[in-house]
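Structure (tokenized):
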């Protein structure tokens, strides 16, 4: 007899044994299979579901078989295994069993069983098919696991820039989820026949290593590190078709990579890793030991989702690497550009120093009077040299601004005075073409905080262009006024689209001409470096196309902009807008406190002794000529090593020292920086003024010279007036 136990959710009584078997379907309100056994363990009542669940004949059941016979018949029908049968009987017979108990049938169904006592010492057993519930629970658990994995992968992808970390996380999880012995993630580099599959990360289980030895694993890893060339192995089929590939026995596959042909490798799955545009940029490989085939695994969608996320991560990491390489290349190009410009500046300024210097000396006619033809030729030489020097300066200025190395020296500037100075500078060219140049000033505009030298460049560039492109007899007007952002916003054309504050006050500098004008389809070329409206070999107007580009950059350096109006064959108006940080009260005309020394004045050196350290023969002759004309005694030293020897010799013998040293920087054998430092570190020499005289005129070169200890800095081409002023300031009377 079955033992007594607690009541089940379905209670029975003595009357239940007398239920008419024709009414058995009433015992099946929720699909439970119900069987009622009497005190002798004989089946007395059952419902239709009980028959259907296990294919039992109702006529046989009506014969009241013993409960062991009933459940033995279920085993005989193939629904339960002997193990399940024995465990069920043991559970029902034991008073210690806590119900429900669960039975996993051989057909894959899950059964929940309850057993409880009736009032007449019988038992009622109910069976509930919970297969769908268990499957939904398993599906929910799998989905939660999938979501947790994808969330974890996403969390690592978002902040991580290290692709290896992302690949390792994904691979470790997938190997565990799939029960794989090993796996790897490979990234495809190059295209076509040059393509190569490089391993990003790989992982081999400890069991595989223990079973087959470290030598086998080492050989596999070596191949992965080397990369798999295009056409070798099965992965390239996945790359080309963008669909997963499954291999039952990789060891015997004819296209298997030799190093991976090992009996320990069973079924293999190779999954494509796509980029955003669908291009396959990598592959995921897994080897599984599970009895279930990889292509039938429920994690299939998780694998593909992981591959898509890996594709995003790989693509982003590759883009970041390309960006880093581009930035590195740009930095290197910028450095090479700076070095090239510094070198070219020196190489061009050095001969220009001789050209302009000797032209200046001859034009002074201190040696002998010149004929009008000789004077004319010398002026052509000087003008051509100055033109070449201006081109060099424009290129260097543009380079400084574009590299962000240019700095403004803001100070109160008298706008009317500055415009008048620029008018005087351009007037000879205006007169030559018989043009009319007029000025128009806003009475409210007296001073503004600007970089005077840069604004002078802007004015000269605009006026020079107007003179160049205005036919003889034309008119040019230079105007300066206070304007506001609402006027700038309404301008017809601006080469930049920077936002404009309507209430911002500007100094608006405008140059209007009656020149040839510019067609609208050419306006976009005007402010680009080295671009010209007419770039043909037959063009009538010379130039490099730097003036307007430099003007635009200088305006932007002040926080401003430029604008243009032009009508072909009628004329153009170029405007430069420089913002005023605050409106100032009208001030008296800003006085010009410095007066340049007369151009032809020659100071007397009164026999002072100057050493010239210079290696270029033409520059040697020019500097000596300039100094001797001023009455100085000159000592020439032609290279750095000779100067170094002289420093030590004079210090050791206590000889009389020169009154000043003109020191070139780029010297053979020992450079000028080292010589200046040597002089200033010597107690015997440190009182002697040293002037750095060099063609190095790039940003920071002056600071480098002064930082080395030089007392002053002069750049080539050398101005006689600047040389005079510097010598007078440094040499004691």
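Design, position by position:
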């Amino acid at each position: 007899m079955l033992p007594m136990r607690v009541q089940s959710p379905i209670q029975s009584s003595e009357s239940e044994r007398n239920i008419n078997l024709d009414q058995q379907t009433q015992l099946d309100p929720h699909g439970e299979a119900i069987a009622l056994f009497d005190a002798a363990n004989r089946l007395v009542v059952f419902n239709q579901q009980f028959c259907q669940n296990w294919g039992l004949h109702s006529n046989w059941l009506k014969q009241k078989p013993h409960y062991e016979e009933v459940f033995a018949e279920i085993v005989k029908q193939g629904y339960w295994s002997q193990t399940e049968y024995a465990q069920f009987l043991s559970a029902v017979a034991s008073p210690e069993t806590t119900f429900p108990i669960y039975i996993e049938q051989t057909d894959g169904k899950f059964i929940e069983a309850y057993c409880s006592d009736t009032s007449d010492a019988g038992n009622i057993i109910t069976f509930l098919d919970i297969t769908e519930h268990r499957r939904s629970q398993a599906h929910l658990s799998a989905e939660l696991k999938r979501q947790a994995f994808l969330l974890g992968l996403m969390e690592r992808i978002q902040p991580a820039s290290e692709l290896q970390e992302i690949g390792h996380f994904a691979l470790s999880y997938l190997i565990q989820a799939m029960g794989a012995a090993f796996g790897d993630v490979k990234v495809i580099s190059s295209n076509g026949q040059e393509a190569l599959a490089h391993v990003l990360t790989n992982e081999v289980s400890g069991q595989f290593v223990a079973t087959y030895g470290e030598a086998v694993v080492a050989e596999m890893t070596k191949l992965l590190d080397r990369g798999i060339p295009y056409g070798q192995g099965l992965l390239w089929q996945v790359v080309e078709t963008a669909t997963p590939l499954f291999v039952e026995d990789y060891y015997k596959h004819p296209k298997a990579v030799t190093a991976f042909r090992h009996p320990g490798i069973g079924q293999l799955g190779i999954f494509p890793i796509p980029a955003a545009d669908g291009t396959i940029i990598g592959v995921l490989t897994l080897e599984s030991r599970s009895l279930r085939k990889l292509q039938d695994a429920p994690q299939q969608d998780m694998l593909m989702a992981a591959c898509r996320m890996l594709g995003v991560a790989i693509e982003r990491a590759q883009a970041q690497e390309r960006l880093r390489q581009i930035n590195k290349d740009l930095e290197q190009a910028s450095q090479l550009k700076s070095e090239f410009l510094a070198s070219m500046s020196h190489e061009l300024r050095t001969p220009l120093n001789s050209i302009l210097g000797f032209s200046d000396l001859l034009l002074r006619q201190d040696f002998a009077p010149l004929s009008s033809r000789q004077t004319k030729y010398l002026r052509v030489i000087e003008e051509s040299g100055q033109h070449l020097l201006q081109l060099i300066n424009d290129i260097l200025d543009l380079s400084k601004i574009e590299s962000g190395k240019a700095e403004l020296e803001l100070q109160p500037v008298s706008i009317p005075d500055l415009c008048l100075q620029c008018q005087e500078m351009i007037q000879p060219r205006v007169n030559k073409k018989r043009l009319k140049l007029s000025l128009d000033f806003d009475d409210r505009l007296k001073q503004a905080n600007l970089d005077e030298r840069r604004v002078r460049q802007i004015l000269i560039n605009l006026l020079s262009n107007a003179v160049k492109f205005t036919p003889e007899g034309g008119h040019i007007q230079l105007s300066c006024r206070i304007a506001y952002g609402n006027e700038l916003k309404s301008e017809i054309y601006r080469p930049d689209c920077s936002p404009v504050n309507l209430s911002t006050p500007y100094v608006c500098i405008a140059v209007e001409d009656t020149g040839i004008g510019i067609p609208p389809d050419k306006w976009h070329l005007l402010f680009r470096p080295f671009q010209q409206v007419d770039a043909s070999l037959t063009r009538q107007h010379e130039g490099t196309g730097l003036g307007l580009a430099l003007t635009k950059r200088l305006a932007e350096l002040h926080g401003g902009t430029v604008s243009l109006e032009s009508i072909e064959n009628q004329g153009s108006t170029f405007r430069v807008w420089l913002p005023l940080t605050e409106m100032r009260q009208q001030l008296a005309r800003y006085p010009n406190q410095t007066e340049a020394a007369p151009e032809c004045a020659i100071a007397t050196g009164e026999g002072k002794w100057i050493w010239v350290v210079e290696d270029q023969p033409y520059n040697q002759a020019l500097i000596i000529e300039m100094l001797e004309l001023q009455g100085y005694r000159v000592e020439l030293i032609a290279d750095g090593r000779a100067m170094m020897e002289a420093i030590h010799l004079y210090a050791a013998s206590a000889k009389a020292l020169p009154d000043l040293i003109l020191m070139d920087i780029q010297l053979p054998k020992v450079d000028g920086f080292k010589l200046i430092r040597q002089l200033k570190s010597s107690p015997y020499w440190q009182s002697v003024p040293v002037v750095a005289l060099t063609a190095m005129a790039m940003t920071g070169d002056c600071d480098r010279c002064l930082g080395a200890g030089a007392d002053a800095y002069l750049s080539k081409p050398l101005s006689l007036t600047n040389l005079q002023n510097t010598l007078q300031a440094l040499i004691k009377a």
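Reviewer-requested clarification: The radius of gyration is 48 Å. Residues 277 and 311 are 10 Å apart (CA to CA).
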